[in-house]
Structure formats: C-alpha cells, structure tokens
C-alpha cells in the first residue's frame, strides 16, 4: 500500500501519539543537533538555514493520497530523520493538512528554532508540539545535544517561553535523560526551574530505549525516571519505558459522554480530559472525529480553544457511527 512514497510513512504505533502517520519534510539526518542518543544515527548534514529541502507540493500530494485510504490514523506527525522546522514550507504543509482532515497534527522538534518568528508562525495551526529540552546549562547541553555552533541554550529557552505565550495548542516537553550526562542533581534542578518558567501542558521523561548513535551512552534506570517525575509535578509523566504502547481514543472513549458534556457547556481540551479522567491525546482524537462529523465546533475565547456541541446533534453520534460501520 505504501510502495513508491518518499515522504509519508506509517501509520506506526507511537508511545505518545497512538497510530501515527509520519511526515518527513527533511532529508535523512539533516539537523542542527547531533544528539548522543539519536536512534537515527550521527548527523551527517549539519544545517541552520531554513529552505524547502523537500518539495511541499509533492508532500501534500502524497498526504492527500494516503488520507483518502480507509485506515485508522490517530495523529499526523511531522518528525522523521531530521529537524522538521528547518523546512521553510512547513507552515504551508500543515495548513494543507488542516484543510484535508480533522485528525490532530503533531510536530516533534528539538525546539532549537522557536526563537525565530517564522518558525513559530509555521507551527501555529498544529495541535500538539513536542519539543525537547535535555539540558539548560551550556556545558551539559553541549555534551548531550552537540548543537550547531550558532546555537545557544539561552536563546533556545527564550524561544520556548515565547512560543508558549503565542501557541494555543498543546505543548508536550520531552526531557531525555542519559546516564552520567544530564542526570546529575544540579542539572536536574536547573531543568526543573526552567520547565516551570516555560509552563508546558505536559512534561514527558524519556531515556535511551533503542540503540543510540553513540553506543558508549546508556539509559537511566526506570525507577530513577519515576523518582525524577516527582520533581517535575503533576503534569509530568514517564514515557521512557520499553514496550509501552498507548490505548487510543477509538478503543477507550465513549464519545457520547464527550458530546453530552459539550451540550451542557463549552469546554477546553484540558477541562474535558480532567472531567472524563482520560489522556489529552485520547480526547483530542475523539474531538477531531466529532468535529469532522459536524457534531461539534471549536472556537477561541480569551486565547483558549473551546469546543461546543452543535445544536440538534443529540443522538446523532450513534447514527453516524452505525452508518460508517454499514458502509465498511
């Protein structure tokens, strides 16, 4: 089914994003980091300049073809084998995706270019941004991420803070701990303070699970990740557990409960997730399905995205789902 495609892969199971359809907008291992833990391998194309490395029209054409196929996709994820924000047409491609589908769009990025207004603008239509921040001191940042010489950790941190103020979607900040490099107490405490200033929706703690580009380095113990989680507060979760797989909205959520809640009043994603005791991703996927079906609509109020049920849709969810099953 996927033969002949250059830029789209999957859907593949993701620990964080369910069944993820990958979109690769950068040539293999074109990046401005050369992280010691990278499972893709060493960076052989170091770059800072943004340009159209992969043609936007061809990526959009492939996406259009794939999305026309009947299959389960929980998220459309820009990631792949390099740093996606280096593609200057990223915003154009995300915009095209949002015209094609209500499936949530995620971007996995090292966060290094968020200080650029052009990058922040390119990401504004995405639903979930997953930046990384593995260190906040210059010394440890250099050892773990081995950045392009033009990058400074202070600038990256300021970019993350600015993006948080401007972005209306979810920010899930990943910290990947490497044993003996960024797990020392002083660096963890610095990280904790900076993360508190950034205020992401989630903090996700990870460690080396797959073979890294530099085999000298290894993971921190699972019990240590859970100890570190306590330091970062209630929005923190551990994702660096080998073999962990999510249970997605299509398996867990009773969509009637969401629709009933939204008939009572408009709610944000955070409010729905808390009220139903479900993950943000599960609820976000379900909201995308219902918005595409014309059962709910979204709007912004005081810079926060809200969802509300469309009048007259009581009982419509069951009818629509039964109709889809009949067609299949």
Kindly describe this structure.
- This protein is α/β, with parallel strands linked by helices.
- It has 2 domains: about 10-240, Alpha-Beta Barrel (TIM Barrel); about 250-320, Arc Repressor Mutant, subunit A, CATH 1.10.10.10.
- The chain is built from 12 helices and 13 strands.
- It has helices spanning about 55-65, 90-100, 115-120, 140-145, 155-165, 185-200, 220-230, 250, 255-265, 270-275, 280-290, 315-325; strands at about 10-15, 20-25, 30, 45, 75-80, 105-110, 130, 170-175, 200-205, 235-240, 265-270, 295-300, 305-310.
- Helix 1 runs parallel beside helix 2 and helix 10 (about 270-275) crosses helix 11 (about 280-290).
Describe the SSE topology.
Blueprint: E1 8-14, E2 18-23, E3 30-31, E4 45-46, H1 56-67, E5 75-78, H2 90-100, E6 105-109, H3 117-122, E7 128-131, H4 138-145, H5 153-166, E8 170-177, H6 185-198, E9 202-207, H7 222-232, E10 236-238, H8 249-252, H9 255-264, E11 267-268, H10 269-276, H11 280-292, E12 296-301, E13 304-309, H12 316-327
Helix pairs in contact: 1-2, 10-11
